[in-house]
Design a protein that fits this description.
With 260 residues, the protein is mostly helical. Helices cover 77% and strands 0% of the residues.
């Protein structure tokens, strides 16, 4: 897809979003606050009990921030993929198949949700707090933090792509999205050591959102000396990329039009 087409779609989505400016600003703020409330509850509890399975509030804030910032970034540009069942239910996916452009790209470009930037903004604010609280704040750290947020968004994209592909067979996939993205994302926002070994392994190898933040932060805070922990998001992304794209392409081959 040419840069001009992408730019045109990007600008069109932005104009649509800010057509009602008050509503846009209000939704942006409330979307961020709605997610932030989850962390606020944990923060209030930790001010009383001081730590969570040996993790300080600042360290938990970093884990939360990386996962949620990646989620906010993905929702900004991946809303079409997140709501993919709308394409299979309405038959609109048929139109995408006849165009000489990747269907993944087309689905991603169907809808930008700039109001989701509120999630990204509040997550970054929590990350800054965590970095200062843990004594990690530095230009080098924030550069690494940015890379981890981008990898978190890419991992969310891969997982969402796999869950969206399920709709090729089931038509609807909203229930599996709630379990595979919302529930697992929330679980990954906190130290994996607070869960049973089964949940920890699931968040590491099956739905690898746990690798986005827990393992890198473990290395940065000295809880592990394994350099693999720092690179775990990149490893997960590399391993899951062919799986997610392969499943999507397989789903395309088995897709049956609604006939509408």
């Amino acid at each position: 897809m040419s840069a001009k087409v992408f730019k045109a779609l990007f600008i069109a989505s932005l104009k649509k979003e800010i057509e009602y400016r008050f509503n846009f600003v209000f939704d942006t703020i409330t979307s961020g606050l709605a997610v932030f409330s989850d962390f606020l509850i944990i923060a209030v509890i930790m001010f009383r009990f001081k730590s969570m399975a040996g993790w300080s509030l600042g360290e938990v804030a970093l884990i939360y921030s990386i996962v949620e910032a990646g989620w906010g970034l993905f929702r900004t540009f991946g809303e079409g993929l997140h709501r993919f069942q709308e394409f299979t239910l309405s038959g609109r996916f048929d139109v995408l198949l006849i165009r000489p452009i990747s269907t993944i790209t087309q689905v991603m470009l169907q809808r930008f949700q700039f109001r989701r930037l509120g999630i990204l903004a509040q997550a970054i604010a929590v990350g800054i707090f965590g970095a200062v609280f843990t004594g990690l704040a530095s230009p080098g750290f924030f550069l690494l933090y940015t890379c981890l947020v981008l990898l978190s968004a890419l991992l969310t994209f891969e997982i969402s792509l796999i869950l969206a592909a399920i709709a090729f067979w089931t038509v609807r996939n909203e229930d599996i999205v709630v379990l595979g993205v919302y529930s697992m994302r929330t679980a990954s926002s906190y130290p994996l050591t607070i869960y049973t070994n089964f949940v920890k392994q699931a968040l590491t190898f099956i739905i690898p959102l746990g690798t986005a933040a827990f393992y890198p932060v473990s290395y940065l805070t000295g809880k592990t000396n394994s350099i693999l922990a720092l690179f775990s998001p990149m490893i997960s992304f590399t391993l899951f990329l062919p799986i997610s794209i392969g499943l999507w392409k397989l789903g395309e081959k088995h897709y049956s039009s609604t006939g509408t």
